[in-house]
Specification:
By secondary structure, the protein is mainly alpha-helical. Helices cover 74% and strands 0% of the residues. The longest helix has 31 residues. It starts with 5 loop residues before the first helix and ends with a helix.
Length: 212
C-alpha cells in the first residue's frame, strides 16, 4: 500500500497530467483531505462522555450488519406481507452495497485507517480497529442502503431508519475508526444502492404481477 493520504496521492496524479483545470482539482482534493482530518481531530478531542458508551455500543451492534438483519427479522415476523417484502429489500440492498464497497471502491482508494492514538481519541470510545482500508465506511453504506430500501416499501419507517443509519455512520467517526469523509461517502453510496435495488425489485415484482 502506498504511504500518505489517498487524497494527496490522487492530487499528485492530477498535477502530473498538467492539463487545464487539473491543478484546481488537485488543490481541491488536498483541501478536502485537510478539512476531513481537521474535523476528525475536532471530534476526537471534544469531550462527550455521555455519548461515548452509547455510540460505542451502537457501532459494535452494526458489525456484520447485525443491527439491520435483526430489524429485518422483526419486520419479516411482525410486519405481515409488506414487512416481509421490506425485509427482503433491505437484506438484498445490504448485500449489493457490501459487494460494491468491498469489491469495487475500497480496492481503488486504499486509504489507511486513522491513527486515533496520535490524535487522542479517548479509550472509552474504542472499538476494534478493522483491518480493511478506511474509504468508504462499509457500516455507513450498509445502514443507508437498508434504510432507503426498507423505507421505499414502508415509508413510515424511512425517517426513523435513516436517522438510525446516520447515528451509526457518526459512531464510526466518534469511535475513531473512520474519517468523516469515509462516513459521508459511504452513506451516499449506500443510499444510491438502496434506491437502485428498490427500483429493480419493484420492476421485477410488477413484471411477475402482469405475467398471465
Amino acid at each position: 500500500m502506498d504511504e500518505g493520504p489517498v487524497e494527496e496521492r490522487l492530487a499528485d496524479r492530477f498535477d502530473a497530467q498538467d492539463r487545464p483545470g487539473r491543478h484546481r482539482v488537485a488543490e481541491a482534493l488536498r483541501q478536502a483531505g485537510e478539512a476531513d482530518r481537521a474535523v476528525y481531530a475536532a471530534i476526537a478531542t471534544t469531550p462527550m462522555p455521555a455519548l461515548d458508551e452509547p455510540l460505542r455500543r451502537l457501532s459494535e451492534a452494526a458489525n456484520y450488519s447485525r443491527l439491520w438483519l435483526g430489524i429485518a427479522g422483526a419486520l419479516a415476523v411482525l410486519g405481515g406481507r409488506r414487512g416481509r417484502r421490506a425485509a427482503v429489500r433491505g437484506v438484498v440492498a445490504i448485500g449489493a452495497t457490501s459487494a460494491a464497497v468491498n469489491l469495487g471502491v475500497k480496492p481503488l482508494y486504499e486509504r489507511p485507517r486513522p491513527d486515533r492514538a496520535t490524535v487522542g481519541v479517548p479509550s472509552s470510545r474504542h472499538v476494534p480497529m478493522p483491518s480493511s482500508t478506511s474509504f468508504p465506511s462499509g457500516h455507513s453504506a450498509s445502514g443507508f442502503a437498508f434504510a432507503v430500501a426498507v423505507g421505499s416499501e414502508l415509508p413510515v419507517l424511512a425517517i426513523p431508519l435513516q436517522f438510525l443509519a446516520g447515528a451509526v455512520a457518526y459512531s464510526r467517526v466518534h469511535t475513531g475508526v473512520h474519517y468523516p469523509g469515509d462516513a459521508v461517502v459511504g452513506s451516499i453510496v449506500g443510499a444510491g444502492t438502496g434506491l437502485v435495488t428498490s427500483a429493480i425489485l419493484s420492476r421485477v415484482s410488477r413484471s411477475r404481477a402482469i405475467v398471465p
